[in-house]
Amino acid sequence: MVLGILQPSAGEIRIEGTDLARRRSQALAHTNFAAVYAALPGNLTVYQNLRFFSLLYNVTGGARRIEQLLGEFDLQALRNTRSGLLSSGEQTRLALAKALLNQPRLLLLDEPTASLDPSAADLIRSRIRAMAAGSGCGILWTSHNMYEVEETCDRVLFLSRGRILLEGDPKTLPHAHGAVTLEQLFIRLAREPLAAGSPSTP
Amino acid sequence: MKLRPIAAIALRQFYLMRGSPTRVLPMIAWVAIDIVLWGFISRYLNTVTSGGINFIASLLGAVLFWDFFTRVMMGVTMAFFEDVWSRNFINVFATPLLISEYLAGLVLTGVATSLVGLAVMLLLATWLFGLPFFSLGLLLLPFLLVLFLFGIGLGVLASAMVLRLGPASEWLVWPIPALLSPFVGVFYPLSTLPAWMRDIGHALPPSYVFENMRSVVGGHGYSGSGLLLAIALALLDILLAAWLFTAIHRYAVGSGLLARYSAESAS
Hints:
The complex is a heterodimer of chains A (202) and B (267). Helices cover 38% and strands 15% of the residues of chain A. Chain A has 202 residues and is of the alpha/beta class. A 3-stranded parallel β-sheet of chain A has the order 3-4-5. A two-stranded antiparallel sheet of chain A has the order 1-2. By secondary structure, chain B is mainly α. Helix content of chain B is 76%, strand content 0%. Chain B is built from 11 helices and no strands. Chain A binds chain B through residues 3-7, 24-26, 28-29, 31, 33, 35, 37-45, 48, 51-53, 55-59, 62, and chain B through 2, 4-5, 7-8, 11-12, 15-16, 19-20, 82, 86-98, 253-254, 256, 258-259.
């Protein structure tokens, strides 16, 4: 919905103060995303993908920005490799590089460490943290890995069927609700009647 | 509209063609086969008929024009299909790209690929069979313009259909030129057709090109008003197709079809 590919049934989405429904193009110019379900075209090389998306996002000085991101994400050696031939970790790095092309103010990351080994996932998390600290952009990160959320995020929201069940600081939230870890809290919430689709309301 | 996003769509197609001869070959192979086949048929008909009709000019010329229209249409739809095949809709439509910019990019790609096909056809038809293509003079411009505009309109319409009906409907696109050809009189005058087919033919811009081409080749001049009507009809087709594509895109966003496109269902 935040990316403008699914229309909300109610409410409005504002990105940097711009209404997505009324000024879609202007609102989306401030965003970008990386998601496992939206792999970049595998028949284009790493460089071609970045070039293609830099033009789509109307990035000024695109060539320079691409070189910068190729360096930041260790993709220089893979620049002429077709994206479909990359490993999961390499594809994630490419997706993140693409997601930063337009220096977004709002970055959406959907399970950015899914299917990565613990070492690669740790490296990706470090890069994202550094990126957030460096650019100051907001990051909306969806994840089922509660250890990752606890370690990386400033604020967590538990959603079920379009409703916010709980929100707060992932480091203090478990204790405030009688759980030892965020994962334990997640499991408890997931098994509550509301999360399972009961008609009861919070 | 901004130039960079439009260039992106065309550049992506260029990258794909540069790295894949199988994408380039069909642009050349089909038109070359058509020209060679119809060139020999025309040459044979010239030897067995005595009516003074130059079949090279009328028949082979018609094939060349029809293939040009087909290449324009396919050029637009092929660029769209690349997004279908690579499941790229979410990546593309989550950018600030406007629908008008996307369609302009598809058209730019269609222009480039159809010009390659046209050059190959002209080379073969004039060199192998002596087609007096340029004897049509300045009339070539409106003829090509009508076919070009109608090809764009139909390409956008076909893309809209695939966006609405899902990836499998791609197979409904390929036969569209063949389905239209009987109605527009590529090889025969519209007067040959029964009234209901003739009425449909009059609503299709290419009919005016083929009627006028036969008339000019037969030494009977051309209908300027007919060609103007054809250009107006083709422009109207483009506007309608672009409106339909935009409406279907809006529906696809509203219903969730775009986000779940590969599932071929919104629910």
